[in-house]
């Protein structure tokens, strides 16, 4: 393929542009003077408009300002969307984390609502009890349909001969300090409980947090506790 120099390429371009240039000139000179003046004015007006819009620094500055304004608006919208999404994801994660933590609360301390109450749950929150074997008294502040304790404790508390007990209802007890038992709370299966009627006095520093009074048969639950055990 022959090599074409820059000078030759320029000559070819000039030759190729000669024909359309001749056509434009012939069209311009082929009209009367009034038409030539009108066409000349249009050419001047077009060139003036072109220079103002494309060759003016002020025009480009205005375009840049408009573009920056639109870009800033878009950026703010994107940041707002990202912020909302971050907040939403954070809320969902927090809710998920709270639910997970709630599901892992042991010893009848979970705040999920116990409704409906199974018929096989014999005792209720607020009843005063005595432990059949150890003899201490206390008051029920919560229950689970079956033992809800760490697995290691289950294995220790219920040897192979008593494994069936872990699947029976369990109760959280505030132990009466007057017994001098040494422990303040207990978590025991249903078969180890006997209910006492008419015994009002149970001494424990957390009593007022759980109960507001005594009705003659059991302690009256605080509103927050009643929401958890609506049928007790």
UniProtKB/TrEMBL annotation:
Position of the signal peptide: 1-21
Q: Which residues form the Hemimethylated DNA-binding domain?
A: 120-222
Report whether Signal shows up as a keyword of the record.
yes
The source's domain of life comes to Eukaryota
Extract one GO molecular function annotation from the record. Answer: DNA binding
Sorted alphabetically, the keyword list is: Signal
Q: What Pfam families does UniProt report for this protein, alphabetically?
A: YccV-like
What the entry lists under InterPro entries is as follows: Clp_protease_adapter_ClpF (IPR053189), Hemimethylated_DNA-bd_dom (IPR011722), Hemimethylated_DNA-bd_sf (IPR036623)
- Family matches, as NCBIfam families: yccV
Q: Which PANTHER family match?
A: HEMIMETHYLATED DNA-BINDING DOMAIN-CONTAINING PROTEIN (PTHR48439)
Q: Please identify the protein, giving its name as recorded.
A: FBX21 protein
Provide the species name. Answer: Halcyon senegalensis
Lineage of producing organism: Eukaryota, Metazoa, Chordata, Craniata, Vertebrata
Q: Which gene encodes it?
A: Fbxo21_0
């Amino acid at each position: 393929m022959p090599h074409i120099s820059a000078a030759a390429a320029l000559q070819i371009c000039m030759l190729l542009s000669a024909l359309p240039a001749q056509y434009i000139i012939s069209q311009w000179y082929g009209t009367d003077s009034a038409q030539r003046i009108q066409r000349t004015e249009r050419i001047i007006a077009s060139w003036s408009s072109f220079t103002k819009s494309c060759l003016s620094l002020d025009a480009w500055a205005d375009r840049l300002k408009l573009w920056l304004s639109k870009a800033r608006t878009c950026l703010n919208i994107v940041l707002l969307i990202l912020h909302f999404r971050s907040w939403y994801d954070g809320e969902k994660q927090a809710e998920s984390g709270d639910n997970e933590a709630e599901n892992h609360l042991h010893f009848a301390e979970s705040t999920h609502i116990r409704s409906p109450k199974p018929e096989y749950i014999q005792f209720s929150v607020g009843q005063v009890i005595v432990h059949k074997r150890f003899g201490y008294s206390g008051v029920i502040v919560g229950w689970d349909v079956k033992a809800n304790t760490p697995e290691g404790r289950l294995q220790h508390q219920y040897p192979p001969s008593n494994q069936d007990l872990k699947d029976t209802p369990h109760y959280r007890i505030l132990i009466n300090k007057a017994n001098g038992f040494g422990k303040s709370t207990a978590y025991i299966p249903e078969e180890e409980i006997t209910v006492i009627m008419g015994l009002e006095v149970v001494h424990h520093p957390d009593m007022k947090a759980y109960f507001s009074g005594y009705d003659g048969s059991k302690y009256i639950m605080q509103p927050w506790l009643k929401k958890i055990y609506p049928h007790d």
